[in-house]
Design brief:
This protein has about 375 residues and is mostly helical. It folds into 3 domains: about 70 residues, 434 Repressor (Amino-terminal Domain); about 40 residues, no CATH class; about 170 residues, no CATH class. The chain has 18 helices and 3 strands. Strands 1-3-2 form a 3-stranded mixed sheet, with helices on both faces. It is elongated, with a radius of gyration of 32 Å. It starts with 7 loop residues before the first helix and ends with a helix.
Length: about 375
Amino acid sequence: MPARGVAPGAILSEELDARGWTQQDLADIIGRPPQVISEIINGKKRITPETALELAQAFGTSAEFWINLEADYQLWLANRGVCRDKARDIARKSSIYGLAPVRELIKRGWIRPTTSADDLEREVLTFLRVSSPDEFPRLAVSYRASKTRGPEARAQVAWVRRVEALASIQPVGTFDKGRLLASIPRLLALSADVSHVRRVPQELAALGVHFVLVPHLPRTHLDGAAFYLEGQPVVALTLRHKRIDAFWFTLMHEIAHIAMGHPAVYLDNLEMDAASREDSEWEADRQARDWLLDPEAFEAFVERTQPRFSRQRIIAFAASQRRHPGIVLGRLQHDRLVEWRCLRDLLAPVCNYLRDWIDTPGEVAGTSLGGQSASREEGAA
């Protein structure tokens, strides 16, 4: 193979000279106009796959020889056109995009948009709170995802960092686990009416528990997390499922982690298959179920009602438990006693009542928190 930077036309001209052929001779042999041969030799026309096949037959070579010759030459030309600084920037940006879902972070305002590789690296490293691209973030929360830096793990790390950033500026009271446990009935009393979910953040803040709502990032499939930040518990939800049953079960699942003193609290995907769930997850599931619906009363309700769970019976049992009917329906659907498509109107959405607490896209990290600050100060008062 000729040295890089040698034009295919120069090689073609040498082949003609070696055989004593003119450009017209080659044009006659392969059945092309002489102008085509002239343009290839003068670098005005590239060798196409069809031409490569024809030249291979004319000179007794392979078509790949001419295709590779053309490809190497075009790559050499392109490399000359890309300056070394730009090439280094491309390589650095590629490395940075391997640390976090950069476009999503910019879209949500968690980092500032920039075209400079230096500035982009600085933004991402500051957000992740690491000093170099080779450093894996140390998180206050454990997670089940592989520690390899795949897309899901990178997005989970970014989500946790945002939760930590919001929790760190949120004023809350002094935490005491005994007081949290004693307050569970008062907290659950809010579950009877969907509009009462707006009071949950203030209740938790008064108990010394940070409450953060950050929508999940693509490919994370997270429902929530519970962990400690500087000694204070944090409960974070994604509202991936916006129904009242999903909100209350996820909330109580995360509170159960704290109340039960689980030392390694995980990011929770509550739809994870049974084989992947750990003992602490099952314990938190069971505790959340029992807090929401008295287990003996629920079992008796199922025994006397199945297989016909009418709207009226669900509403009546929910009233006896002082719960929203959607919580009862959600449990019945989870236990496969009622089909998912049935009575969907009972599964009231909660987002409108938590709007001031949901971390919304477009807010630049470190400036505004989408109206959450005022609500939080209210809740901690």
